[in-house]
Structures are given as C-alpha cells and as structure tokens.
Design brief:
mainly alpha
Length: about 230
C-alpha cells in the first residue's frame, strides 16, 4: 500500500491511543521510520524463533503499514510547519502596512465625523486597544462604520474603495495571523496525530526488539539487527 493508504488504514488505531500513552519521537521521525522498516525485514527471517518465544507475528508484519502511516503524517506536519514559517515571514512584511492603513482609516473617520459626537465616540471605541488581534478587528469595524455612513465619507472625497480595502485587509490579515500562529499552539492536531502514529509504530517496534534481543542474546550476528544504529551513534 502507499503511505497515504497506510495512513488511512491506521488512523483509527492511532487515534485510540490516549493522551497519557502518547509519546514523542526521540530521534528524527524519518530515521525512526527507516529503522523500523529495516527491523521488519530483518525480523521476518526470524519469525519462527520469535514466535516460539511468544511474539505475535502481527507485530512484525504490521510494522510496514505503521511505518508508512507515520511517514505520511510526518510529511503532513512538516508541510504545516513550512506554511506557518512562510506565514510568519509574510506577516512581518504586511503587518506594518496593515497597521498604517488602520491608522489612516481612524484619522479619516475622525475627520469625516468631526461634527457628529455619536459617531466620533464610535471611532474612539474602535481606536481603543492594542495588539494584532485588535488591529485586525479595527480594520473591519472601521470599514463597517464607513460603509454605514457613505454620505459623510463622500463629503470628504472618500469612496467605497476606502472601506472595501479595509474589510479585505482585515480578512487577509486574520487568515495570515491564524496561519502564522498555527504551530505555536500546544494542541496542534496534526502534531498530536503524528505522535499517536509514532506511538503506534513504537509499540510494535519495541515488542519485536525486546523479543529479538532475548532470543538472539547469544548470537551476535542476528542480535545486531535488533538494535538502533541511530542510538549507537548518538
């Protein structure tokens, strides 16, 4: 099966692993997957001896599917991380311009409504506050207020493109901020699923390794296949 098919096949099993059982890879996931696949090929030659010592053959035969599933979700998570980093860079470029346009909108609204205390109070409420989320909301609130009072805006030479840009900028910056923030949240679902898939694979790998190390404890040639080359080097 393909990695994608492995992922779909093992999704329910991975999600069934509860929070206190979930583990995080102690080595790069790609290396762990490759070592797991190597282990499965190695242990296949020893199935009879391993089974005689109590190991379920399913642990060996199921490793390739579990490894493929982990490889797939690791790629998914890596893509999300790349998108998040790209969004952070884009945010740094666009945020100053968004703040500047927000300030321009506030200044324009104050001038347009300078003779209307009620509307000026609304502008002051919009201007109150700070931070990225506040700026994004300010853009949309300013757009709504301007759109609701087109005559006052037209009187100072401002047309509908003024508030349309504000509303559009608010949407764009909100989406960009969400993408930039995505990986910073501890409850990232894709990472959690990656760890669940890793745990599912590790359960099988550990069973096979533990049995292999016991069965071949006096056979150095076969024993070596049940140890991690990565761990031996680090």
């Amino acid at each position: 099966m393909s990695n994608s098919q492995d992922y779909q096949a093992k999704l329910a099993d991975a999600k069934a692993i509860s929070g206190d059982q979930i583990q995080t890879p102690y080595m790069p996931a790609g290396i762990y997957v490759q070592e797991a696949e190597d282990l499965a090929r190695w242990a296949t030659k020893d199935l009879a001896q391993l089974a005689a010592s109590g190991l379920s053959e399913h642990y060996v035969t199921d490793i390739p599917a579990r490894a493929g599933a982990l490889r797939e979700v690791q790629s998914m998570w890596a893509e999300e991380r790349r998108d998040q980093k790209d969004a952070e860079k884009e945010w740094k470029l666009k945020a100053p311009l968004a703040y500047e346009y927000r300030d321009d909108m506030i200044d324009t609204l104050r001038y347009a409504f300078r003779k209307n205390e009620s509307l000026l109070m609304n502008v002051s409420k919009i201007a109150d506050g700070s931070g990225h989320a506040d700026m994004i909301q300010d853009l949309n609130d300013s757009a709504v207020l301007a759109r609701s009072n087109p005559e006052a805006m037209q009187a100072i030479g401002v047309d509908e493109s003024f508030w349309q840009k504000g509303a559009q900028l608010s949407d764009e910056m909100a989406d960009l901020r969400a993408r930039a923030n995505g990986e910073k949240y501890a409850d990232n679902k894709t990472k959690e699923l990656r760890d669940q898939m890793y745990t599912l694979l590790k359960q099988a790998v550990d069973e096979v390794k533990d049995c292999g190390k016991y069965v071949f404890r006096k056979d150095k040639d076969r024993l070596q296949g049940y140890y991690s080359r990565y761990n031996q080097k680090h």
